Amino acid sequence: MKIVDLRATTVAMPLEAPLRHANGAHWGRFVRTIVEVETDEGIVGIGEMGGGGQSAQAAFAALKPYLVGHDPFRVEELRFKLANPTSSLYNNRTQLLAAVEFACLDIAGKALGCPVHTLLGGKVRDEVEFASYLFFRYPDAGTGRGEVRTVDQLVEHALELKREHGFRSHKLKGGVFPPDHELRAYRELAKALPGDTFRYDPNAALPMEEAIRFGRAIEDLDNDYLEDPTWGLNGMRQVRDAVRIPLATNTIVVNFEQLATNVRDPAVDVVLLDTTFWGGIRACVKAAGVCETFQIGVAVHSSGELGIQLATMLHLGAVVPNLTLAADAHYHHLVDDVIVGGKLSYRDGRIAVPDGPGLGVSLDRDKLARYAELYQRLGDYPYDRDPGRPDWFAMVPNQSWADPEDAASGLARPGGATG
Is 301 a catalytic residue? Predict the structure, then answer.
């Protein structure tokens, strides 16, 4: 079997409301590039990649000469063809490789009539548990609804998500407002949801000293972990020494060299494996094996997935025996999906692992076309800018916080679209 074509289509998927984070915002939509890899036997595999609010179509088009004629079963060879560690210093193709790997594993599963999790060694669980992913949000431009700014709004939103989806673990994405405001919000979440567990992630925005103060102030709560409270391996080591909460990261341990460093001189206790950031599902499985050997915790990170990448997260979660923590997902913030049947469903905070051939999800052609047209109309947006603070940009550590008393109006997007 040989690859004969690669196609990439960028879509804009509306969100319930714009999501705020320490480095800017998701401006009311995710921009994702959907990849299709076609073989000479007529089997087409699908993959997906983000891009910080920007299209990756041109980058995938540049990969076509590398892929045509390649056997999609030879995914280890593909790793060096696309992302040789030396040449990747110039082209940084890790996430491009991941999307192509998704598609190749999808092809292999379809060709053999088995799900991807079988190719990875077989599943040890049928469902993957997820945490709620709580963001401070601007109100939706069209409806005026969906704002999460005050402590009461955050608690109400978390309770609503628990009623609807059954989440038992709750993650607050912080680094937006002054730490004291977010500390009050986090403690009120814990008070409103007794018996559940919690995790806080300010995207490394806090100075090391503030990260220690915040961590000590929440030690009495039922924390899963404190994620990236400050920047860098050395900063995280100092926080880890000072705070009695496990530390987690998806920023400073995202490759095997960094993982080795963390094994030799621990800075974090939990590594959040991302199927795109690590270069594919198989890389995450390898990393999980290293973590199992050295008793480092693992969880599954979310980078703004639609249903295709969500499927890769589910297959990863299915085969990793040491996954003892709920995974992250932005998925419940989406208003729709590009896969047949629409959005996958949560049941008691869990999503069932697909058992169909390959990734177990298929493209809905009508929706792909609809959201591709929406992308053409709206275009890109700068993920690392805040539309409510046009002159602001993120620094690490941050010292310029948004004002929680400033009730923002709905944010119009290019073309006047909403959602």
Answer: yes
